[in-house]
Amino acid sequence: MPVYAINRRARFDYEILDTIEAGVVLTGGEVKAVRNGSVRLAGSFVTFHGNDAFLLNMHIAKYKKAGPSLPHDPDRSKKLLLKKKQIDYLRGKSQEEGLTIVPLSVYTRGSRVKVEIGIARGKKKYDKREKIKRRDIARDIAREKK
Questions:
Q1: Where are the alpha helices (DSSP H) in the chain?
Q2: Most buried residue, 2, 26, 43, 97, by CB count within 10 Å?
Q3: What proportion of the chain, given as a percentage, has pLDDT over 90?
C-alpha cells in the first residue's frame, strides 16, 4: 500500500477527529500521474453537490508521457466514491460548527487509488505553538542522547 501524497499541513492546522477511506474517480492519465507521485493535497477540501461528495483543489499534474489528444485540467473536481450512509454522515459533520472535511493522504489499495479523508476541527494558534515547542524539546533530547 504505497502512499503517494500526505497532507502534512492538515495534520498541523487541524485536530483530526475521525477518518474515512474513499475511492476517487480519475482518468487514466491521472492515475498514472498519481502513481508517479505527481499529486498535491495542500489546500484541498471536500464539498457536497446533490447526493455526491467532491474533492476540490487536489492538484494532479499532467502525465508526462501522455499525448496531446486529451485536455488536462490539473485542479478539476474529483468525485469521491462513498456509500450513501457515509455521505450523509460526512454532510452532517460538515454542517456542525467548526468542523471541516479534508483529505489526509492518497494511496493505492490493490489497483485502486484511495483517499483518506478526515473530519477535522481547526486548532488555535497556541495549540500550534505548543506542538512546535514539544517537537523542539524532543529534538534536543535526541541530540543529547547521541
A1: 8-13, 28-35, 84-95, 125-145
A2: 26
A3: 58
